[in-house]
Amino acid sequence: MDGKISVIMAVYNCENTVGKAIDSILAQTYTDWVMVVCDDGSTDGTWNVLERYQAVYPDRFVLIKNDGNRQLPYSLNHCLQYVKTELVARMDGDDWSAPTRFEKQVAFLREHPEYDLVGTGVSVSDGQKQLASIIKTPMPTKETMLRQNAFSHATIMTYKRVYEELGGYSLDPTVLRVEDVDLWCRFLAQGFKGYNLPDDLYTILEDTSAVKRRTLRARINSAKTRCRGYRLMGFRGLVCYRPYLIVLKAFVPTFLYRIAHTWKLNHSSNT
User: Which CATH superfamily is domain 1-94 in?
Assistant: First the structure.
């Protein structure tokens, strides 16, 4: 297995956070990597920050731009067009990785060639303190997707061939914001195997504005994506329509939903 990693990251208006994200990659104990970053039409100083890093580390960074704000699935597919390595890792522009993340993920894939992907545990932070620790099911199956997402999207390391066989990220408008759900359903439906390391090797910055984006339309699209994915994985009957129950959350007042979301973070160690 070729050990070099392409780290793909899509960014949009991340001027205040992308530096910390990149610094966490520069601090990796595993040093054989290149970073492919797609600016999705940022209107702040994100591109200037990226150019400063590229100027200092010209062999480490490939910078590309979209012609406007094209959203995450398109941006990640754009990144994949520039990937020349066997291994591909994800990263988001407002999160950060633990120094040993890549070292542990590469070691796992080398020791376990039967697996096609490896994710990690996640720590959720408000920027000052840890809010929750999220440990996924170690060996997720199709049934896992009925209860939770199989992997934490931004933590994964996989092979370029997996993305190629899956056709990359879907550009269907109904999968926007749930592009990972669609990807995992297709991943499992095609017989790929993934594993989640139990260590918190990735920190997510809790997005307080995300609650505002959980509109009725977004919830309906999420339900459609899950229903379609369940059928693709071979499930039939009422279980395929269970995701539509989440549509009811759109009728919960935002302030109550925010309270419930905070409580869930403070009282969960698994998801």
Answer: Spore Coat Polysaccharide Biosynthesis Protein SpsA; Chain A (3.90.550.10)
